[in-house]
Amino acid sequence: LLMSPLLLHPLYSSYSTTISIFHENGKLMLGLATLKLLWFKIIFTLGAVFTATDLTETTHCLGHSFFESFSELAMVVGLAYSLSRPSWRKSFVLLMALVGMVPFILSNQDHTGRLLGAVAPLLLLGGWGLDAFWGLFSREAKSDILRKAVFLLLLSLWAWDAKWSFDLCQKWMTTQTKNDPIIGSQVNKDWKQYRVIIAQQLPDFVGPA
Hints:
By secondary structure, the chain is an all-alpha fold. It is built from eight helices and two strands. A two-stranded antiparallel sheet has the order 1-2. Helix 5 packs antiparallel against helix 6 (119-140) and helix 7 packs antiparallel against helix 8 (181-193). The two termini are 22 Å apart.
């Protein structure tokens, strides 16, 4: 409902049609080639989210996945937990994750911003995975020292993974701003205090206003 004014706008509809894999030069394209492209985009999307991506122009994660390793591990455990104990709530969350990937899959312009709809359900799935793992481990582990050690290990893994991801973002920002000393100095100043990310907007990103 919140997005409906934008989604129903004629220029937005025209832009979405232009970048759809089912349209070429303003014409609807349905055939074997389109189905092959759709299958390729599904595999490419899963790879970009969970393994690695080469979206050099639109993301900082060149050669890296959209999510951090710790989040992906939690999602795998959450998926296993959801499949072993299915329910309508878990099925709904899995469906929402797939629906959140649809804009990226159906677009012929690979932009990771079109994956943001899948972030919340996937992280919820990861949260379920961590909760299921810790609940099972706490019941089976008799030693309080062992529980504390595993907890500190998980916490350390999360902190290391978060710092590695943050350093990757900062490295990308340094690359983007090295040719503009004014923007670069402002980024270095704001990064320490506000974590503000500044980057040049891609040309022709949207249609005419």
